[in-house]
Amino acid sequence: MHWALSLLPVCAHGVADLPVESVSFRALSKMTASQRDIALSSGRLARILQDWIRARFKQPAPDLPTLTSFSRLGSDDEPVFPGEAGAESCPAERAAELVRTRWGLGVAPISDMVHLLEAHGVRVFSLSRDCPEMDAFSFWDRGVPFVLLNTEKTAERGRFDAAHELRHLVLHGEEQVPHGPQAEGEAHRFAAALLMPAADVLAHAPRNPSTTWILQASVT
What share of the chain in percent tops pLDDT 70? Predict the structure, then answer.
């Protein structure tokens, strides 16, 4: 279910705080302390509510491929590939293809990113309205993946943000949560490739696509 945290009067007593280093914030260095604390509180409430839901309802088990060896994060001069030793150098676009293959999506359009994530065990919640500047963030908690989305954004932006956060979950896993422009650039490429696979785009695109065609294709 896609729950709005700001509407839930949940008691937080006895639940540990969410460590900032465990969260995939997009621009941590640019966030104010207030923005960071509000976001972390939203994440903490999500964990509390998830515990309540888990005790009463059956939910899909997490089914996210572990693709940490396909992350290209490292120094600009000597990129490294965390994960499996000796893994083949593989960009974020290839990782998106592997996720589509694992989930049996082929190259078909994804009609609902939130439903797709939830169907594969990701717990999706909405961000508090007290942090409108934030788009989304994600984290792992006790083997369970979480994504928090800003529901005040457009539908197109929400789809992209959900795909963006999926990248953080599958490419870096539970043990590594990188920040910075390199990590975000990789996430943007992954999200674009997941939502608009190159093979499908090239198969349907006219020789000289107009701006109108590109805009329409991005939402279908």
Answer: 70
